[in-house]
Automatic annotation (TrEMBL):
Keywords: Lipid metabolism
Protein name: Prostaglandin E synthase 2
Gene name of the encoded protein: LOC113518764
PROSITE patterns in UniProt: GLUTAREDOXIN_1 (PS00195), GLUTAREDOXIN_2 (PS51354)
Keyword NAD in annotation: no
Role description: Has a glutathione-disulfide oxidoreductase activity in the presence of NADPH and glutathione reductase. Reduces low molecular weight disulfides and proteins.
MF terms (GO), sorted A to Z: prostaglandin-E synthase activity
Length: 387
């Protein structure tokens, strides 16, 4: 579904941007040579950022693997730190994790929101790098080209962590048993590359929904809870996330509102000249409005797309009600609560989210987990110095 869009962007638009890099990063006074080019460049930024939800389909998780894995990659480990520019720092004075992490993200990407929700829930301090969605200069050093990426300072270098679910599982495994070094933990989550049904080179991470246990073997009750948590984490990635694009880009007006929110939440006005923001917002909204219809068909979203979103929310709250607890995890959120919250938080500023609150009873759980995580989160500080 996303392949044609990305192919067009990568093969036609991006080379044109690269050839005009100075133009793209030019100061406000240096305007592009042609309006057509300007529109293409800016709209493509908009589309890629808007692809936050839909772009996920470009990277399939555990899809039917028609071919055996063709290659095993060593988990990326860097001896020296890449050059990166943190935009924000989350500073938590009570952080006892001893972790030094950098999150490379798109602010409103649901997978990045999921990782932030996790890091904040654990009270971890970390740096945030906002990646430019078209040229992705800030992740040039990485062979893996999606976000989120987390870089962890470890003995002897920097351990790269990839894929939102795997990032959470690796860090959680480490935090539950700090004697397990991150470099060792990642060995349990091997990166695999394979050709998918469409013959496309695809990356996946084995065991990514599993938390590893060292000596503390879980009893039957804990195992059942872990199974449930795992199933709902998968549901967040495989069901919930696919309901988002068709909803936030449902009509041209909604798509525009969504992009205006991206502009605000992503701080585009601080990073791009005003004319460029305007074209990104309008161009991106138009493109995503069209593309969202194809995503809707691909993921069997109902014609009344809101209904699919409400159905997903009801399925989730129904499971919590059945347990009779505050969260799926009981009195405290578990990784499934955090994942579902993270994914949903990516549309918090959209009309679809307001409608969701009005037509389902997810609001109570949502506010509860948001406050719970918010109380543990460090303070956000704009980073001025470059690392
Ligand atoms: N399974 C990955 C999906 C990550 C993903 O698809 N990220 C999108 C942004 S939301 C991306 O980087 N797309 C760029 C591309 O596909 O080239 C995860 O959970 O982290």
């Amino acid at each position: 579904m996303w392949q044609p869009t990305f192919t067009l962007l990568r093969k036609v638009i991006i080379p044109s941007i690269k050839a005009n890099t100075k133009l793209f990063y030019s100061s406000k006074s240096r305007l592009p040579r042609s309006t057509v080019k300007l529109t293409l460049v800016s709209a493509s930024v908009g589309v890629l950022v808007g692809a936050g939800y839909g772009g996920y389909t470009h990277y399939k998780i555990n899809v039917k693997k028609s071919l055996a894995p063709v290659e095993n990659e060593e988990y990326p480990f860097l001896q020296t730190a890449p050059v990166y520019r943190p935009h924000y720092k989350i500073i938590n004075d009570g952080d006892t994790s001893n972790l030094q992490l950098v999150l490379f993200q798109y602010r409103t990407c649901p997978f990045c929101c999921k990782v932030r929700a996790y890091l904040d829930s654990r009270g971890i301090s970390y740096d945030i790098v906002e990646v430019d969605a078209v040229l992705r200069q800030d992740i040039k050093w990485s062979t893996y080209k999606k976000v989120p990426i987390v870089l962890a300072k470890v003995d002897g270098g920097y351990q790269q962590l990839l894929d939102s679910t795997a990032i959470i599982s690796v860090l959680e495994t480490h935090l539950r048993d700090k004697s397990s070094e991150l470099r060792e933990v990642v060995q349990f989550y091997p990166v695999t590359r394979y050709l998918n049904d469409a013959g496309k080179d695809t990356t996946d991470i084995t065991n990514k929904y599993f938390i590893m246990h060292n000596n503390a073997v879980p009893d039957e009750r804990e195992k059942a809870a872990e199974n449930e948590e795992r199933e709902w984490r998968q549901w967040a990635d495989r069901v919930l996330v696919h309901t988002l694009s068709p909803n936030v880009y449902r009509t041209a007006g909604e798509a525009l509102e969504t992009f205006k929110w991206f502009e605000e939440a992503g701080g585009w006005r601080q990073s791009f000249p005003g004319w460029e923001c305007a074209v990104m917002v309008y161009g991106g909204a138009a493109a995503m409005w069209i593309i969202a219809k194809r995503l809707k068909a691909r993921h069997n979203i109902k014609d009344d797309v809101r209904q699919s979103l409400y159905d997903a929310a009801n399925e989730w709250t129904g499971a919590i009600k059945k347990k009779g607890s505050r969260f799926l995890g009981g009195e405290q959120p578990n990784l499934a609560d955090i994942s579902v919250y993270g994914v949903l938080s990516s549309i918090e500023g959209c009309q679809a989210f307001q409608d969701l609150r009005n037509h389902t009873d997810i609001g109570k759980w949502y506010d509860d987990i948001k406050n719970t995580i918010g109380r543990k989160m460090g303070k956000v500080v704009a980073a001025t110095a470059h690392a």
